[in-house]
Design goal:
Helix content: 25-40%
Number of strands: 2
Order of helices and strands: HHEHEHH
Strand order of the largest sheet: 1-2
Shape: globular
Number of helices: 5
Distance between the termini: 34 Å
Largest sheet: 2 strands, parallel
Length: 138
C-alpha cells in the first residue's frame, strides 16, 4: 500500500500573504493549474487510487477534484473530514503575516506558524461557519 500526499495549490490567501487556517478560501488560477499539473503527473507515473481524502476546505476539495480529473480517476470515492484541515491559527486567521511580524516580531510569528509548544492567540467562539458547530470545544 502507498500513500500519496498532495498539498493544495496556491490559494488566494497564499497569494495575498494572510493567515488562513480554517478560513475557507479558494484557489487562484495558478493554484488550479498546479492541481491539474499534479494530476497529469500522477497519470504519467501510472499511480492509481482506491480512495481520496480531503479536508472540508474548498482549496483542498478543488485540488483533490482537479487531481482526480486530470489523472482520469474522477470515479474514486472522496472522504472529506475537518480532521485534515490546516492548523487553526486562532485570532491570526485573516490577518496579514507581515503585519503580525511587525507587531510581534519574526521569532514569535515563527513559533505560532511552525511550533506546537505555543499555540496562536485563542479564539473564544466559532466565528468561521456552521460546519464546525458540532465539534467538541475541548
Amino acid at each position: 500500500m502507498k500513500v500519496v500526499l498532495i498539498r493544495h495549490g496556491e490559494s488566494e490567501a497564499n497569494f495575498e500573504n494572510y493567515w488562513t487556517g480554517w478560513l475557507d478560501v479558494s484557489l487562484t488560477e495558478k493554484g488550479r493549474q498546479q492541481a491539474w499539473a499534479a494530476g497529469e503527473q500522477i497519470k504519467e507515473l501510472g499511480i492509481s487510487f482506491d480512495f481520496a481524502f480531503a479536508s472540508v476546505l474548498q482549496r483542498t476539495i478543488i485540488t483533490c477534484d482537479a487531481v482526480l480529473e486530470a489523472s482520469d480517476q474522477l470515479w474514486v470515492p472522496v472522504k472529506k473530514t475537518w480532521r485534515l484541515n490546516e492548523r487553526h491559527y486562532g485570532q491570526l486567521v485573516g490577518v496579514n503575516k507581515d503585519e503580525m511580524v511587525a507587531q510581534y516580531g519574526k521569532e514569535q510569528v515563527q513559533k505560532w506558524r511552525r511550533g506546537y509548544d505555543e499555540p496562536p492567540l485563542y479564539v473564544e467562539e466559532n466565528d468561521l461557519d456552521r460546519r464546525y458547530d458540532s465539534l467538541d470545544p475541548a
